[in-house]
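Customer escalation, tier 2.

The customer says the design service returned an amino acid string that "doesn't look like it belongs to this structure." They asked us to rerun it and document both sides in this ticket. The original structure tokens are below, unchanged.
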């Protein structure tokens, strides 16, 4: 008898890692656009609302929020009960890194777009997100579920 719940969770874990990796690439593109072309005349968000980069900034924030929610769902629903502990570690590091990038971004915006350390922190946390989910996918591919995790009978002792 095969325990499909473990297999289903593993498939969902793989799909969520792919989705978060895809959102990371979108987030990178939005961040690069903001860095190169976004102009923010004011030092606060309301003053920047009239700038050309504001819609892209809103999209950047929205994708980041979606990534945080997705990372939490991945950790709590899929990775936490995975029989391989490493998957919990990948998912946990991903949540912390997404949160760190969000805090860095919020600090950067609240500083009037002038705190270079906050911008660097956001970028480095993003790099951790990207590497974590990419390595997580590689790990999932190279480490299928053990037979006992999917309900197979243990081997008979001789």
């Amino acid at each position: 008898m095969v325990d499909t719940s473990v297999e289903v969770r593993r498939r969902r874990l793989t799909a969520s890692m792919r989705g978060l990796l895809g959102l990371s690439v979108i987030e990178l593109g939005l961040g690069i656009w903001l860095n190169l072309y976004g102009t923010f005349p004011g030092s606060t968000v309301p003053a920047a609302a009239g700038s050309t980069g504001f819609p892209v900034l809103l999209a950047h924030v929205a994708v980041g929020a979606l990534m945080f929610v997705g990372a939490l769902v991945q950790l709590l629903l899929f990775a936490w009960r995975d029989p391989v502990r490493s998957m919990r570690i990948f998912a946990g590091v991903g949540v912390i890194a997404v949160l760190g990038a969000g805090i860095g971004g919020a600090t950067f915006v609240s500083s009037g777009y002038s705190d270079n350390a906050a911008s660097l922190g956001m970028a480095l946390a993003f790099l951790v997100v990207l590497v974590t989910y990419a390595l997580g996918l590689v790990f999932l591919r190279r480490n299928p579920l053990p037979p006992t995790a999917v309900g197979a009978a243990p081997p008979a002792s001789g």
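Tier 2 assessment: The sequence is consistent with the input. The chain has five helices and no strands. Helices lie at 4-37, 45-48, 54-79, 85-110, 116-142. Sent an explanation to the customer and offered a walkthrough call.
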